[in-house]
Amino acid sequence: MRTISVSVVVISAALIAGQAVAADMPEYPDVEIPEAGGSFYLRGSAALNVHWAREVVHPSVPVSYSFDRLGYGYSWGGGFGYETGTGLRFDVTMDSVEAAGLSVLKDTGAVDDGRYTLMLRSTVALANVYYDFGLGESLGYSGVSGYVGAGAGVAWNHAEVSSPVTAPIPIPTGTNVSAAAALMTGVSYDMGSWVADLGYRALWIGQINNWPTDETTESYYTIDNNWIHELRGTVRYRFN
Questions:
Q1: What's the rounded Cα separation, in Å, for the pair 103 and 77?
Q2: What range defines the domain where residue 132 resides?
Q3: Which pLDDT tens digit goes with each residue over 71-84?
Q4: What count of other Cβ atoms lies within 10 Å of the Cβ of residue 185?
Q5: Model pTM?
Q6: Is residue 199 a contact partner of residue 151, using CB atoms and an 8 Å limit?
Q7: Which of 74, 90, 169, 183 is the most exposed, having the fewest neighbouring CB atoms within 10 Å of its CB?
Q8: Which CATH number belongs to the domain containing residue 164 in this structure?
């Protein structure tokens, strides 16, 4: 009986002491472990465009003609990317770009005078980097952000020229590979897994020519510093 009483006293004393020690221990704030902000995404884009260049050059003559009409067309494509969650994101894209109507009027008194019109089809591969910044608070809408970006890569070009009926030798069709680059800006709306954006892209294609036409003939031409201005819609899907 004494043994039981002593045990009860010891246990009670231990419980009281434990509560006192716990009361004296400092309280630590809850620590939240942040989730990783990065995510991979797939993207698809479509755009309307305007094609501008200053002049077409026939190096063998040598002679150049200034363009007096713009080209118009469209583009579409897709890509794969990663956003870091810090505002920076990166992707690689491939687009099919078409534009027709860029033209010159040759008026030299020669038999081949008339209007020459370019039809361009390009496949453009770019590696891009963007910076997203919040606009929701300033505009009063949650989920709205702006972005700026730049890209660099390669364009595979296919060029056809519509020649006047009086031309004894039509301008040959050709293909070439050129450096390409782009500048982008726009606004995005974040819906969670889906993000939609509307933006502007200035696509630069370094040179268009009609290789493998003999460069020593008058039929060979080059068009440097082509700018394709696009109004572009894009949808991105985050899948992790």
A1: 26
A2: 38-238
A3: 999 999 999 999 99
A4: 14
A5: 0.83
A6: no
A7: 169
A8: 2.40.160.20
